[in-house]
């Protein structure tokens, strides 16, 4: 039994590029990685939204209505549904004046997990304890 | 000149925009540019809004990002694609995308 | 009614700038304006037929066909397309293939120009 | 000797990030390291055969063939490629087509990871 | 006889994207635009390097040697050879500490034209007097 | 942790890099990131160079832009692709590209 821990740091704002979306979808794909690994091997991702990346977390995104693409909010919800840990930097939310009630959740889909608003120090700890870092 | 400026990014465009002068200046926030119209950084609105200009923000790009009209700074008018067409032909002779 | 010439250098997927250009072109055409659209750099990816519409990605084939029907002229930079391995035989029918002077000539006869650069 | 897994999301033409990734992969392989390269987003444009080499543009076909010969494993994101209208039949031979978990599995068995994000 | 004046404003730094290169090549294409216009019609481009765009003007660029692509310096030289007016913002050169002897020219190719180092006010005038502005 | 940071842009990366801490920090300037190692903005070297870190700049990317070793700040070591491979495997365990 041996796990490899990965930190997915999302620092880009939404929609200009695919980057933020791909950060979440790449993390979600941990669900099926066992197919390609030996028994007992696993990959444990943690997604961290930092800097302008926290702007991806707003709820009520209307990307499908306006551009015909799945919203980043929907990707975040999918992540929560498959038990992904998604941390959001508290200081950066505060800096941009985004209150907690503006943040996406997946309660309507029955997810137990929520976005976890944490101090940057907590994200630094994730970076320290992860085997590899992927910045999106 | 009558200059319409499309601002499509949040951070990196401030310096370029700061330098622009025109008798009539319109700044149209689209894509992540709409954060200039909605987000305060450490409690301060975007310095772009201090320019002497008319400000517009594209409603679809606000909604796409989970932002609503009540988030928009009072100096900024929310517009549709159709409104942008009229701004282009009726209000601004030269257009730049920064 | 006026003429608007636009250019878009940004890629179809992975940027919403091309989505913006297509929507604005449609809105302008709907109001009776003449619209020209020049595609260069990664913007030439738009010209490829048979793009699969997955729900995560923008696709342009359908909106491009609608614009062409509305009389919008669309032209792709041949060199930029070839450099990306996009052949003329794979192109969406109705999109013109030409070089940069096409864009300048359209600008000559335009009332408004909106040049959407790269990135 | 170690294993380096890289990803590149940036497009072939119009960005030098993919050039960087290919050169670094070659330099690492030359030193005897095992290298894996995952291509996603606009990086999938690399996988297309028959790119014309114009002197203004980067092309990857030749360097990619050399990397494959050196034992570098290269895999392109199938969904990202299809969304761009790139079909498997047009792909450079030897490049694998798979999904994101390929990348995570390669990371699992790697000593070093360099993830080159978009733009 | 009627001319349309175009200002090509290049503000991106070199090589990360194609943008700066395409600004120059699009301007150079004015040479052949007459093919598609009526007699007496013409397009007059002026290229202006501003902000980080002035970083494109350094001489001795080794892009062909290192990356197999034509350098932006070569494109600038070609522009000078076909008599393109290329203005470089004096304040931005000074800001980045780039002295005039570091700036590309096409003397070796027999061009009469040189890069014209001018105050930003001059570039503003070009913007005012041009029919359309294209920012690269 | 031993962290190697690839900086590939000139301006927009300063803020991200500023926040990073590691017991051993290496900053590798590539692409337009090499301007951090060579250009003074209004006479001031890039604030990134004030960090407590080892600095490297890729020689090919310097030369591509018309820059030479004499332009490079004394705090920065000029390296080749081959050197970068060794830095990756010998000096830094985790790598990020910002």
Supply the key terms.
heterohexamer; B: 98 residues; alpha/beta; Hypothetical Protein Ychn, Chain: A; five-stranded parallel beta sheet; 4 helices; 5 strands; 26% strand; C: 119 residues; 32% helix; 21% strand
Describe this protein's structure.
The complex is a heterohexamer, with two copies of chain A (136 residues), two copies of chain B (98 residues) and two copies of chain C (119 residues). With 136 residues, chain A is an alpha/beta fold. Chain A has helices at 19-28, 63-67, 72-81, 90-95, 120-129, and strands at residues 2-10, 41-49, 85-89, 116-118, 132-135. Chain A has one domain (4-135): Hypothetical Protein Ychn, Chain: A, CATH 3.40.1260. Chain A starts with a strand and ends with a strand. The model of chain A has no long low-confidence stretch (mean pLDDT 95). Chain B has one domain (2-97): Hypothetical Protein Ychn, Chain: A, CATH 3.40.1260.10. In chain B, helix 2 (34-38) links the parallel strand 2 and strand 3 (54-58). The longest helix of chain B has 11 residues, at 81-91. The radius of gyration of chain B is 12 Å and the shape is globular. The two termini of chain B are 17 Å apart. Chain C has a five-stranded parallel beta sheet, sandwiched between helices. Chain C is built from four helices and five strands. Chain C has helices spanning 17-30, 61-69, 78-83, 100-108, and strands at residues 3-8, 34-39, 73-77, 96-98, 112-116. Chain C is of the alpha/beta class and 119 residues long. Chains in contact: A-B, A-C, A-D, A-F, B-C, B-E, C-D, C-E, D-E, D-F, E-F. Chains A and F meet through helix 5 and strand 5 of A and helix 1 and strand 5 of F.
Write out the strand line-up for the largest beta sheet of chain B, numbering strands in chain order: 4-3-2-1-5
Shape field of chain C: globular
Most extensive interface, chain pair and sizes: C-D, 28 and 27 residues
Gap from first CA to last CA of chain C: 31 Å
Instruction: Indicate the low-confidence ranges of chain C by residue numbers.
Output: none
Judged by helices, strands and strand pairing, the structural class of chain B is alpha/beta
Q: Which structural class is indicated by helix and strand composition of chain C? A: alpha/beta
How large a portion of the residues of chain C is in β-strands, by DSSP E?
A: 15-25%
How would you state the average pLDDT of chain C, rounded?
89
* CATH fold annotation of chain C: Hypothetical Protein Ychn, Chain: A
State the CATH superfamily name of chain B: DsrEFH-like
- Give the CATH H-level superfamily of chain C: DsrEFH-like
User: What is the CATH architecture descriptor of chain C?
Assistant: 3-Layer(aba) Sandwich
Cα-to-Cα separation, first versus last residue of chain B: 17 Å
Q: Could you say which overall geometry of chain B the principal axes of the C-alpha atoms support?
A: globular
Question: What would the average pLDDT of chain B be, to the nearest integer?
Answer: 94
């Amino acid at each position: 039994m041996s796990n490899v821990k990965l930190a997915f740091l999302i620092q880009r704002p939404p929609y200009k590029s695919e980057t933020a979306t791909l950060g979440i979808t790449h993390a979600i794909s941990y669900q099926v990685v066992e197919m390609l690994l030996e028994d007992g091997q696993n990959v444990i991702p943690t997604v961290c939204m930092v800097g302008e990346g926290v702007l991806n977390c707003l709820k009520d995104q209307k990307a499908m209505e306006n551009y015909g693409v799945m919203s980043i909010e929907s990707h975040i919800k999918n992540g929560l549904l498959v038990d992904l840990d998604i941390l959001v930097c508290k200081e950066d939310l505060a800096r941009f004046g985004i209150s907690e009630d503006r943040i996406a959740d997946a309660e309507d889909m029955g997810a137990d997990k929520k976005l976890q608003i944490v101090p940057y120090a907590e994200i630094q700890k994730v970076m320290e304890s992860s085997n590899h870092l992927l910045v999106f | 000149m009558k200059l319409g400026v499309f601002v499509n990014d949040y951070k990196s465009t401030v310096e370029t925009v700061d330098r622009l002068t025109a008798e009539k200046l319109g700044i149209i926030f689209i894509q992540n540019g709409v954060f200039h119209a909605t987000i305060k950084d450490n409690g301060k609105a975007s310095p772009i809004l201090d320019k002497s200009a008319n400000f517009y923000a594209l409603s679809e790009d606000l909604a796409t990002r989970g932002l609503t009209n009540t988030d928009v700074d009072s100096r900024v008018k929310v517009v549709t694609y159709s409104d942008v067409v009229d701004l282009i032909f009726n209000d601004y002779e030269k257009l730049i995308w920064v | 009614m006026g003429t608007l010439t636009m250019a878009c250098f940004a890629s179809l997927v992975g940027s919403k700038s091309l989505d913006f250009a297509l929507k604005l072109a449609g809105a302008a055409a709907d109001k009776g304006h003449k619209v020209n659209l020049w595609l260069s750099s990664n913007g030439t990816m738009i010209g490829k037929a048979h793009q699969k519409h997955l729900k995560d990605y923008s696709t342009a084939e359908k909106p491009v066909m609608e614009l062409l029907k509305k009389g919008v002229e669309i032209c792709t930079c041949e060199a930029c397309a070839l450099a990306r391995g996009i052949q003329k035989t794979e192109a969406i029918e109705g999109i013109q293939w030409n070089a940069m002077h096409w864009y300048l000539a359209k600008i000559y006869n335009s009332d408004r120009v909106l040049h959407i650069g790269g990135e």
